[in-house]
Amino acid sequence: MTMDNYITLEVCMNNVDRDCAVLYKLFSKYPKEDIYFELADERLIIHLRELDFFDFKRNIQLLAKNSNDEVAKLLNSILYEIEKIKSYGLKGRKRLYVGYDKERKVKNRKEKEETRGAYYYAKNNTFSKQNNEIPEQFINKIITGDSEEILKRFPENCIDLIFTSPPYNFGLEYENHKDGINWNEYFDKLFAIFKECIRVLKYGGRIIVNVQPLFSDYIPIHHILSNFFIENKLIWKGEILWDKHNYNCKYTAWGSWKSPSSPYLKYTWEFLEIFCKGDLKHPGDKRQADITADEFKKWVYAKWDIPPEYNMKKFGHPAMFPEPLVERVLKLFSFKGDLILDPFNGVGTTTVVAKRLSRNYIGIDISDEYCRKAEERLQDAGFHTTVQGRI
Questions:
Q1: How far out from the chain centre does Cα 49 lie?
Q2: Is this model's pTM higher than 0.85 or not?
């Protein structure tokens, strides 16, 4: 029950002294505005509003370790009662147990949405709603070749989710790929591949592209790609900031030093642009969702703090994203058993995580060497697949 903006919990005191010093020591660590207790007969009444739960849990465990059996039992009962509350919001390190689901109410919301025209730019598309199966020869395979040509062999509407990060055109040293070409040439090829990606994506499927603008050239790649997908009638679902906290990049260039003439802005993050084909809802069996409540609540906040990949030298690739990034994308936007495609698979981070998370996968890359390394990663993880030759 809720009283005076607190959730009220009751725990039996059993044989614990009402003047138990351990209780006062525990609750004194937290503001009364967050949590406090009262005693009533043989009951401990806890009033809870918000709490740094993991700090609270750690303190309870430390106190229980150094207390007698009855006090330890009481402390664990307190922890159990709070831990079993599954509905809460998040604010920094704290769980919010009261008022987290309140929002500013808009009268006649549906009517106003219809008047405005939600994702009006994606209306009148010509996408078929009939999804298709892909031939078995392509499933759970690493394929060497040009993605544009390989994807033409796929039927339309056969892929559940596409997650990829195309070459950045920064001038990095990729194997068997020239990075740093003319921007028109770069986008012409990229758009040709992404047009095929749109075609093979299922109705209700998602395409998520990790990209970093080339700030030194003042090319907003994330905006250019987003505009391309919008022009091709996909629905913009959102944008995630992947903050790598890569402080090494912070103080290498200043532009016009101490002058408003032309200061150079600095970024420690990249972008994930998220688009849907035909429908925002991706159908699936809820029993095949493998994201936990805590993961869901944290990850729908569209700023992800994940360190960059530090093993790029090990795999001989200049621009890998880390496995935790792929894990979040796949668990938040796909079901177990879905078919995941990465048309710029590189050394196979997307495919190895997809396999580990019980998704089917297809990884395509133009580099024979990268495809071999992607296969080795799958084998090292205890999975077996085969590399198809150049198509």
A1: 28
A2: no
Class of the CATH domain delimited by 131-388? alpha beta
Pairwise CA distance, residues 225 & 234, whole Å: 12
Q: Residue 236: is it exposed, middle or buried by C-beta count within 10 angstroms (0-12/13-18/19+)?
A: middle
> How far is Cα 386 from Cα 19, in angstroms, rounded to an integer?
68
Give DSSP secondary structure letters for 192-237.
HHHHHHHHHEEEEEEEEEEE--BGGGTB-HHHHHHHHHHHTTPEEE
3-state helix, strand, coil in the chain (%, to 5): 35, 25, 40
Number of neighbouring beta carbons within 10 Å of residue 231:
10
* Lookup result for tokens 């906290």: 245
Pinpoint the alpha helices (H) of the chain: 21-27, 53-65, 69-83, 109-116, 147-151, 183-200, 221-231, 293-299, 312-315, 323-333, 349-356, 368-380
pLDDT digits (tens, 9 = 90+) for 2-61: 455 899 999 988 788 877 888 899 999 999 999 999 988 888 899 999 999 999 999 999
Query: pLDDT (tens digit, 9 = 90+) per residue, 278-306?
Result: 999 999 999 999 999 999 999 999 999 99
